[in-house]
Amino acid sequence: MRIYPLKSSSSVYSCNSYLILGDWNRLEDINCLVDVGTDGSIAEDIRGMSTGFGKRPVERVICTHNHFDHVGGLRRFKEEYQPEVFAFTSFPGVTAILRNGQLIRCGDEYFEVIHVTGHSNDSICLYCPTGGVLFSGDTPLTVKTPGGSYSAVFEKQLEDLASRNIQVIYPGHGDIIDYQAKELIQETLRNVRKSHMV
Questions:
Q1: Which CATH class is domain 2-197?
Q2: What is the C-alpha to C-alpha distance for residues 18 and 70, in angstroms, rounded to an integer?
Q3: pLDDT at 48
Q4: Which of 11, 66, 181, 188 has the fewest CB atoms within 10 Å of its CB?
Q5: Predicted TM-score (pTM) of this structure
Q6: Cα gap 104→77, rounded to integer Å
Q7: Among residues 80, 93, 95, 76, which one has the least CA distance to residue 38?
Q8: CB distance 51 to 57 below 8 Å
Q9: Residue 173 CB-half CA count within 13 A
Q10: Burial class of 43 by CB neighbour count within 10 A (0 to 12, 13 to 18, 19+)
Q11: What residues have CB less than 8 Å from 180, skipping those under 6 apart?
């Protein structure tokens, strides 16, 4: 599995997007894009990448949630690549609905869909045990101090994430976290537990 971070144009507010490819670009590997960003400008970067002979550069799109900075450019990708589009809830452009616990192929690996409600009701994370990879979308995993309000459901979802062997976090915003990622989630869980629970 190869993961390529993609940045949208600096002229618009957008999210981090990630293109997942198989190690060898085999026909059976699925070129998968996690989040498309606001304006679809990352399509320019993808066009210049080696994504496999006879394969569409983007065969599958997975939306971590339906906020505009993550899905605003979806129409452009639909027109250019005709990908399958997966999300946890239906909105324009989505072709398939994901379920909590579902396994979905990205590149040459399978990722588990994990429904996590800390940011929005339709937010998901994607977890691959190979390499301990987590795509977190906008799930709040860096709660450094107690404070604020959190639901008991979110606490349970954090417990689930904290129990997994997460080594690298690819967030929806900010830098990739590749040092003590599991410890970071455990710290967040401790601080959420010390906050106001609703």
A1: alpha beta
A2: 11
A3: 86
A4: 11
A5: 0.94
A6: 20
A7: 76
A8: yes
A9: 13
A10: buried
A11: none
Residue appearing with tokens 């455990």: 186
How many Å apart are CA 136 and CA 38, to the nearest integer?
Answer: 18
DSSP the chain: -EEEEEE--TTS---EEEEEE-TT--TTSB-EEE---SS-THHHHHHTS---TTS-S-SEEE-S---HHHHTTHHHHHHHH--EEEESS--TT--EE--TT-EEEEBTEEEEEEE--SS-TT-EEEEETGGGEEEEET------SS-SEE-HHHHHHHHHHHTS---EEEESSS--B-SSHHHHHHHHHHHHHTSEE-
- What is the total residue count of the chain? 198
Tokens representing 181 are 């990622």
pLDDT less than 70: residues of the chain: 9-10
pLDDT at 11: 77
